[in-house]
Each structure stands twice: as structure tokens, then as C-alpha cells.
Amino acid sequence: MALQPILGYPSDYRAPFTAVQIDFAQGPSTSSGPGRSPIYIGPKTSAGSWTVGTVYKVSREQDVIDGAGAGSFLHRMLRMHLLVDKGATLYAMCYAASSGGGIATATGTITISGSPTATGNVTTTVCGEDITTSFSTTDTPSTIAANLSAQINAKTFLPLTSSPSAGVITLTAKIAGASSGDGTVPVLRFRSSPDPGKGITVVTSGAALGISTGVSGADGATTEVANLTSALAGITNSRYYYMGFSLWSSAAATVIRTHVLNKSTPNPGLRCRAFMGYPGAETALTTIANANNYERLHFVNQENSDHDAAELCAQVLAIHRKMESIPAGFVPDNYRGPDWLIRPVYDNNDVPTQTEVNTAVTNGICIISSDPSGSFLVMSVNSRSKDATGSLNDFRATETHRVSFMDSFADTWLARHQVTYFGFKLKPDAVLADGTVDVNQKLPPKTVTPSRYIPFVAKIIDEFEEAGMFQNATDWKASLRANIDPLNNGRLELGDSGRTIDILHQTSLRLAEVSPG
């Protein structure tokens, strides 16, 4: 058997390959080839012209409007990414929304009543977009509702449509099914209120579509998760390092985790990471995150967010791609740069306490907090926050930079190996009488031995320490091993272990002022 086996490639596997296996504390996660392009995957509306399950390159917002439909979740994800990270090469793939018997579309209402006694405004916020509708003493609830409805529909990037009837505005999600609001998770939030003392009253059916007296969305016989599963099957053999999803349910997370895990093993070696947004309660997301305890999954949470799951996902994914595209780059703590577009929560009661923030981070959740200056991403983490049993806190692999830096190392080694050792021959090391390697052994041209290969990897380790991605390069190099598979004399096996750099997360200063008695 192999002395240093690699998952998916037993000794009797004979086709040529170059692969990497990375063990993060427990559990493998691995790679193949350079390139960190994002892909967004979500449902299309009936107005979209794209073929489901087909990958399209997106250069501008109009591409996804035409392909997936204005206001579709796919449109909203790509729109957010383009606002945040204009330099990315973006891809998109759509699938059909839920359909069939039992399908329901999430709705909500805004009801305007009374008679204006003075000029004023109705202030409305829909999915994070502020709308001001003016009225005068000659207006009626019907005219005010019609004007507000027209303003909502003019913002075609919103994920809902508006229809007035007398003084009642009905808001209807553009995507049918539970993903727009299942009556529990407030996905598409809205609120509306008039200037006080002007004779106008405004009442909403709830805080979000499908909440309270609004109609809750429900999947039909063909669920959105089933359509997502079919779409993902089409890219099983394609690598897109960053994958963004508009779905937020536990069932979707399981499907996404399976897809990413299967692709990220050494065979097929298509390492990737997945991002999902969740605008509901942190406690509910904790259950989902812990059930998907995996270093390549990122769950983004802002409880009762003005933004839908699609925008939360895309904002955080875009920041990661942008920051990690810089050598040794990572997303710093409490991130709120000029490209951070997430609004603070509307209700101060929804601002997480420090205890809640700590609980979220410990459970592998990218939590967004708020303060008087705005919102911010507290810490970049993945959901690998538990041990192999899923019951004990184990934070060793949860910090995102550990995965990103190791992926960078793997990509660098793969690329350089393929260029440097193309067409080489392999032979065992010559050994002296005392069992040590003969350092003066003569080799034919374009021939390598295990001992002659080790310095090639050691050089990359030194570079990563100098760049600030690895620490203790001496330990890395001391543990580096190379041998020829005893059962496959054409395979050079390598093994190594070491530690990525640590990030300054916490600083404390304790002061004691001592006055004389």
C-alpha cells in the first residue's frame, strides 16, 4: 500500500494525475489548478432568456437582467457583486423556480387610509431601498397608493412587484416558492409610515412578505432545491472557487455541502467554497451551520436584515474574492470598507449583543453587526467550528484565512510542478551503506528522485512564510517527506504538515492606577 495515501487515488490508479490533499484539523479538503472565479447560482424568472443549467459569463448587470430576469435572486447577487468588486470575472447559472401543485408565492400588503390634512410624505423601505411618496390635501388613499406602487415597480432590480387597488398595495415576490419567504424567515422585508399629524395612516401586513397576515411562500411538487440539485450536476467537473447561492434553507445547505465536498477531494480535485445568506434568527442558522460542519461553507447572517439572502451572500462573497485576490490577503475583522454596502439593522433590538456575536463566531457564522456608524462583518469564518462528532467546539479550522492560504499554497505547488517537471523521469534515491541518501548521486537529464524533489517544495514553503501566510517554516520543512509508492513505481508521494500564520483578533490592556494611602 501507499506510504502516504491520498484520497481517491489508490496505488492501482494508473492514469497520470497531480493532486493535493489538505487536512484541516480533521477531514480532508483539497485542490487542483489555479483560478478563483466566482459563480452565482439561483432561480430565474419567466422573463429570463438563459437556459437552465448552463453557465454564462457576466460582464455587466444587463447580461444577468436579460438572462435571469430583472429582480431575480440571481440578478440581485450579480448586481451586488458588480457594485462591490468590479474587477472580478463572474459567472452565473440559473435554474427554474419551484413549480407544480401546492405552489404559493409570498405576498404582503401596505394599506393607506385617511384624508390628508396637509402636504406630507409616506416613507417606505423595500428590501433596503428607501422610497419617498409625496401627497397633498387633494390626494386620496387610492392616488397615494398608485404613486407609491409605481415608484416600487420603477425599481426593477427589486425582487417583488407592486399592484395597487384602492388604498391597498399588494407586494408579490417575483420568485414563487418558499425561498421568498416561508412565513418564518423574513426574506423580503418592507415597512412604510406617513409623516405624523397629516391625516394619513399606513398599515402593513407584516415585517416581510409571507410574515403575519401576508401569504407565505411554499414550494410546489417540484421544489427549488430539486432544481438546484439538477443544475449543480452540470458543473460537477468544473471549478469555480467561490460559489454563491440565494437559497438559505437547511435542505439547500445539505445539497450545497455535498456538492462542494465531493468536488474538493483530491479526485476530482476541484477545490471550491460556498456562501449562503440568512436574514433570519441567528439561533435558527446555528442549527443549519452546525449540521453542515465544513470548512468550505460560509453562512452570512444579519438577523431581520433589510437585505435579502441573495444580497447578504453576494456582499460577503465579493469582499472575500476582492481581498483574497491580493497576495496573502484576507478579510480583516470588523470589516466596513467603502465597498461595504449592507445597511445597519432598522431596529436596535436586532443588534446582536457581544455574547450573541461570540456565540455566532464560535458556531462558524459570519455575523453582521451594527453600531451608530453603520454595519460591519464581525469576523470571516467558515462553519467548521466543531469536532468530527459535531458536538464539541473546535475552532482550529474555522478562520477563513487558514483555508484560503492553504489553497493558495496548493495552487502554487500544482502550477509550478506542472511547468517544472513536465516530461521528467522518476527513480529511487541511491543509498549509502549506512542507509542514508547519497547526496552526490549522479542523475540523468530530466530525472528526479524523492530527495531531489524536497527542496522544490521547501522553496515554496519559504516564500509563503516570507509573504506572511505560513509560520515556522523550519518545522514545515523538517516534516516534509517524499517517497515512491511501493506498489506504484511511477508515483512520487509527498507529505508535510505545518501551521498557517495567526491573525491578531484580540488585544487586551489591563491598567492599575495606584494612589498612595
Q: How would you describe the overall organization of this protein?
A:
By secondary structure, this protein is of the alpha/beta class. The chain has three domains: 38-96 and 222-401, 3-Layer(aba) Sandwich (Rossmann fold), CATH 3.40.50; 107-204, Immunoglobulin-like, CATH 2.60.40; 421-517, no CATH class. Helices cover 27% and strands 21% of the residues. It is built from eleven helices and 23 strands. The protein has helices spanning 61-68, 73-84, 141-154, 224-233, 250-264, 282-291, 309-324, 354-362, 400-420, 450-466, 473-478; strands at residues 20-23, 28-31, 38-43, 55-58, 90-95, 107-114, 120-126, 129-135, 160-165, 168-173, 190-194, 200-204, 242-245, 273-278, 297-301, 365-371, 374-377, 425-426, 447-448, 470-471, 481-484, 492-495, 499-500. The chain has an eight-stranded mixed sheet, with helices on both faces. A hairpin with a 2-residue loop joins β16 and β17. The chain starts with 19 loop residues before the first strand and ends in a 17-residue tail after the last strand.
